[in-house]
Design brief:
mainly alpha, 9 helices, 0% strand
Length: 182
């Protein structure tokens, strides 16, 4: 009984103290002017207003917002809210990938596997899957296992070297507390 009363008093004290909620730290250490626009686009996308969402994602992507670049790439790849255009999809997914967006890296690797918006290149696909896996993208890890048998040992080595070069381009803050496969 005493434990229950003590727990209730602690809970009451915590609730009544009026402390502010913790502030999430900035991921990149730089301000992201496109973040609020991208958030508005996500709301529109969740309501099925894809054409309006694409317009806002484009605005945010041009301001350097990586998630907006990723979503814009997906919209162009799927032809949802816009005319399907694999070259534009590739462009935006590549920008998001070079900014360190793991899901964009996975989708970019898929574009290299299938030749959507770019020539088929399994070495580059594997390099992007490796980089995405290093940043925690689970699906990329699965794709590594399916692409590897298509490559020679020399090509796998080339993919590993390319993956290391790609990882050097990714903002350092996105590589913190990650398992390195390199």
């Amino acid at each position: 009984m005493f434990k229950k009363i003590a727990l209730m008093l602690v809970c009451f004290a915590l609730i009544s103290c009026g402390s502010d909620a913790p502030v999430a730290p900035q991921v990149t250490g730089v301000s992201d002017p496109g973040e609020s626009v991208a958030d508005q686009a996500l709301v529109l996308a969740s309501k099925g207003e894809h054409a309006a969402a694409v317009a806002l994602f484009l605005q945010a992507a041009e301001q350097g917002n990586r998630p907006a670049q990723y979503f814009l790439g997906l919209y162009y790849a799927r032809g949802e809210g816009v005319t399907q255009d694999f070259s534009k999809a590739f462009k935006w997914l590549e920008k998001a990938s070079l900014g360190g967006h793991p899901k964009a890296m996975y989708h970019l690797g898929e574009m290299y596997v299938h030749g959507d918006g770019t020539p088929v290149d399994h070495v580059k696909a594997m390099a992007w899957f490796w980089a995405a896996t290093t940043l925690g993208e689970r699906f990329a890890e699965t794709r590594l296992k399916t692409v590897a048998p298509r490559l020679t040992p020399v090509e796998i080595g080339d993919a590993k070297i390319l993956s290391k070069a790609l990882m050097k381009k990714i903002p350092k803050d996105l590589k913190l507390k990650r398992v390195s496969l390199h």
